[in-house]
Amino acid sequence: AGNVEAADEAFKELSSWDTLNRYENTWLLSLESQIAGAQGDIEREAKSLSRLLSSNGQKRFNNAVFDDDYVAYVLQRKILLDAQRGYYAEALKSYSKLQEMHEQQPRIEEVAAIVNRIETSIASEKNLEVPASMGENGRWFHTLVRNKFAFNNIQGELDTVEVRCDSHREKFTVAEAHVWHIPQTWGQCQVMVKGDDATTFDLIEVAGVPQ
Q1: Which of 36, 37, 106, 176 sits at a 20 to 30 Å CA gap from 28?
Q2: Where are the alpha helices (DSSP H) in the chain?
Q3: What pairs with residue 150 in β-bridges?
């Protein structure tokens, strides 16, 4: 009926139940994404859609909750949201999955320009800034698209950053004035940042020529 606040309260009550199965939880995540979209909360919407994709199952195993058309919509929506958030690696991953789907060419074409802008930004000589806030568990994850990164504008306490790459792992103490250089031979890397759950900061993916 358009009462988003009441819908959100009902959602929170439902999500507190411990008797829901995977099918019901996946539908609940779809509901949460719609509520978050109506609220303009892109972080919450993106996270609920990520969890939806993880719990949806697979068509080939005959255990998918949603059909291909809805999954394609979710991937398309994720690309838009992740592009806005600076989660470029996630956006490109969703685009690759969308390209693998049959009969989804219209959706692929609709987001092709956004993907092109993402690739142009990654290849540019400008730093990429990703605003971040720690989750309730005091952890934040981000997949890097460059091999140099730094932290800026830390509001609160950050403890460690763990770099998890295809062939290597390292853990460091966070320092705001430091730039980490990751060898190209380590492959694609994800960072896991630990700190106080109320902390906000910017992760900077540093360009080849710092700007």
Answers
A1: 106
A2: 4-15, 22-39, 42-55, 68-85, 88-99, 105-123
A3: 179, 204
Phi, psi of 93, rounded to the nearest 5 degrees: -65, -45
* 116 Rama sector, left if φ>0, alpha if ψ -120 to 50, beta otherwise: alpha
> Which of 208, 47, 205 is closest to 137 using CA atoms?
47
How big is the chain, counted in residues? 211
pLDDT, tens digit (0-9, with 9 covering 90-100), for 33-77: 999 999 999 999 999 999 999 999 987 778 999 999 999 999 999
Q: What is the pTM of this model?
A: 0.91
Strand partners, 173: 160
pLDDT averaged over consecutive 10-residue blocks of the chain (211 residues)? 95 94 96 97 96 91 92 98 97 97 95 98 96 91 96 96 96 92 95 95 85 43
How many CB atoms neighbour CB 111 within 10 A?
21
* Residues in contact with 109: Cβ distance below 8 Å, sequence separation at least 6, in sequence order: none
**Spatial separation of the C-alpha atoms in residues 91 and 120, rounded to whole Å:** 14
Write the DSSP assignment of 114-130 as a string of letters. Answer: HHHHHHHHHHSSS-EEE
